[in-house]
Amino acid sequence: MHEQGSARRSGRIKAMGGFAAACALAASAWLAPPPPAAAQTWEPTKPIQFIIPAGTGGGADQMARFIQGVVAKNNLAKQPIITINKAGGAGAEGFLEVKKSSGDPHTIIITLSNLFTTPLATGVPFSWKDMTPVAMLALDQFVLWVPADAPYKTAKEYIEAIKAGPDKSYKMGGTGSKQEDQIITAALERLTAPKKFTYIPYAGGGAVAVQLVGKHVNSTVNNPIEAVSQWKAGALRPLCIFDDKRSTYTKKVTADMAWSDIPTCMEAGVNTEYQMLRGIFMAPGVKAEHVAYYVDLFKKTMATDDWKGFMEQGAFNQTFMSGAPFKTWVEANDKRHYDLMKEAGFLAAGK
Amino acid sequence: MISIARLHWSLNWHNVYQRTGHTLGAIPQSTNKVAGGGGNDGTGKLVDEINSLIGGFGVALSWYNLALMVVGILLGVIIGVLPGLGGANGVAILLPLTFPMAQVPGGATSAIILLSCIYWGALFGGAITSILFNIPGEPWSVATTFDGHPLARQGRADEALTAAFTSSFIGAFVAVIVITFLAPIIARFALRFGPAEFFSVFFLTFASFVGMGRGSPFKVLAAMCLGFALSAVGLDQVTGTLRMTFGHAELLAGFDFLIAVIGLFGIGEILSSMESGLKFSGNTASIRLDAVLQTWKKLLSYWVTSIRSCIIGCWMGITPGGATPASFMSYGLAKRFSKNGKNFGKGEIEGVVAPETAAHAAGTSALLPMITLGIPGSPTAAVLLGGLLIWGLQPGPMLFVEQKDFVWGLIASMYLGNIVGLIIVLTCVPLFAAILRVPFSIIAPIILVICAVGAYTVQNSMFDVWMMLLFGVVGYIFNKLDYPLAPLVLAIVLGDKAEESFRQAMLSSQGSLSIFWSNWLVASIMTLGLILLFWPAVSWLLEKRRAGTDAVAAP
Hints:
The complex is a heterodimer.
Chain A: H1 2-31, E1 48-52, H2 59-73, E2 81-85, H3 92-100, E3 107-111, H4 114-122, E4 132-140, E5 143-147, H5 155-164, E6 171-175, H6 180-192, E7 198-202, H7 205-213, E8 219-220, H8 224-232, E9 236-241, E10 276-282, H9 288-302, H10 305-313, E11 321-322, H11 323-344
Parallel strand pairs in A: 1-2, 1-3, 6-7, 6-8
Antiparallel strand pairs in A: 3-10, 4-10, 4-11, 5-9
Helix pairs in contact in A: 4-11
Chain B: H1 2-26, H2 31-44, H3 46-60, H4 63-81, H5 86-101, H6 107-133, H7 142-153, H8 157-187, H9 195-209, H10 217-231, E1 234-236, E2 241-243, H11 257-275, H12 291-299, H13 303-318, H14 323-337, H15 350-365, H16 367-373, H17 379-390, H18 399-402, H19 404-427, H20 429-434, H21 440-459, H22 462-481, H23 486-508, H24 520-547
Antiparallel strand pairs in B: 1-2
Helix pairs in contact in B: 1-2, 1-3, 2-8, 3-19, 4-6, 4-19, 5-6, 5-17, 6-7, 6-8, 6-15, 6-17, 6-19, 7-8, 7-15, 8-12, 8-13, 8-15, 8-16, 8-19, 9-14, 9-23, 9-24, 10-23, 11-21, 11-22, 13-14, 13-15, 14-15, 21-22
């Protein structure tokens, strides 16, 4: 109760501060000559439709709703953001919706790896080229997890154990089929050859982590946020992180380990690396000023303390990109997914 | 004093979790050891749990939080009433609003109180339209329509509503008690559930439903197969490829259960009503203010059904099978074992009690695996889970240790929220029942519009509205040809989940069916399912032998 009251009071003080600042700004605007071009920047004129090509409760959904909350709380946009889940056909439904709303500056979409994998695996006709790239918000990490009492202490030992065991006797649990988790599994199979994993697809990352704790599978490649709680509780052990450098988060998560203490898979002698795009795209045919508005909006969002806290909680790789570098990155990764999926035999007929 | 005791309990809980986390998978057969050990710890710490709970009430019982409860319940009832909106969507829409709320210390508790009360409200509200208009607002309310709506047609809507609300409350209350005192022990139970166990639960649900249709078993089978076919449309989770979309983007997401249900039941009902004279039967009922008390007297005699439904519900919520299979299974078993089983479907109060109790017990206990393991037992729980993360809480086994005030505040709010909810909805029973007295020509267009809006809301797609109308025609034809709708709906709801877990189990066992008898848990559920599946055939054969050659005429 008391806390509520004081929060409301401080909110009012902040609002008054804002009013004072606005007055100062108005005064300075009156004194100074009007800035020529900057005043004509585009602003949304109706609510922004934020499409999530994944189900409620998943990683992309959490991030989109978090952004919606941060933008509303800090008044970063003049129009509200409305999130809509269009998860059908491994996200194809959401991407097709953006593809067909050509020129509409009020529709944005958050992407995960299904931007690349869904058209390749299902043959649904869309690609990232049908949309306008806006920005990369972060890269989501993947970690190789095993139960805490598993005999192998390093990724190398684990790979050796699979090589020594009967074919397909090791079960890898993951989210979805022919998507990022199975692509990583296929990449690992290059090292375990000729032995293969039995890959078991589940609907969501949280369920995958629990299946591992219950030992219905032998390992997973869960994102950090999906498995962190089980790790803290001492039920899981991280073997390596699928990145070329270690995580930058040095705060201890368990009694003796931080995210930065997890060796990279490269270090551990397992030559595999994969991260998932958490980025924003728009409809095709939008103007440069529309893209610029959203790049600016997300820069403001990412400057908030809320965002930083969220990044740390999920041990995200905080890489921001927009414009040409982002486009180049997307292009390279599209090619990479094609190669990986072709090698694993995940491509739909005619791709 | 209290806080020390609570801390001690929580730490102890954590140790139990860790210990069994290790033993569980390694020695799956040694369940006695695990359960026994947990049991000792649980009962030994009873006093501490009560202390923790009292602390939790301290957190939840502020005017601010009580006001949030009332607001949440009212919003939830509205969300539950509107078909298509649903608890999961409702909570998702309001989630960003709680974000600033959770910034202050203790705010996360207020935020979850608001959202979980929306959830309770939606659970209560789902029953209202099921009974009055045959339109289930939520998947777990479908079984409530089977007897609830016939009761309304007989002019006994107030009795049906009272029975539904009271049963909901009892189910939820029992589940909360289970959560309070057995959380550490049963939370680990969910870990035992792999694909084979999940399939066995779905199998048991289907099996307990066989023989429920009043008509020909072949018609039941045909309806069920149509449901399975419809549920297979869209992305196949196991292979990651599309099935039966025929290149149409609209079919990518498959047939949402809600669209089918709104059409089959709601629109189908309106079509039938139009044919039979443009009025609702049941509109002649007088409004009785003492209906609640009268119904309570009758409810006492259904205590066996209540207890059975509570057990089914709690079990299905924890495992986490979910509220929808729980309600169907509970209804199926109540019909099978009740003295009045033959009258089920014609307006038996008991047929309302069974699914409502189980659905609410499951819906409530579904929050337990969410809090303790970070796996959601229902779609709404999945959204709440996202909420926890956004508020800066990490769901999972450490929540009980790191966020004691939050967890116990939430548990206390479950008690209070359900009591507040029951009072609110029971007061409104005469009001709800009076809706049926509004002339058909006024209410029918309103229902149609609400149905259309609901169908559109599910995926923001106009295509779904057309599908809803098509399903309405199908529902009407099914009624005319005497095909049962329930098996069709059950197959649409659970068909893809059952298929998915079956194929996951097959992957896991490399194609051997023996996985369904690989440990005592899955083996006993499967065996129970098989017995239930063949029970009608066996009893029919026995009857036939007893009755000699006359049995051919038996319906």
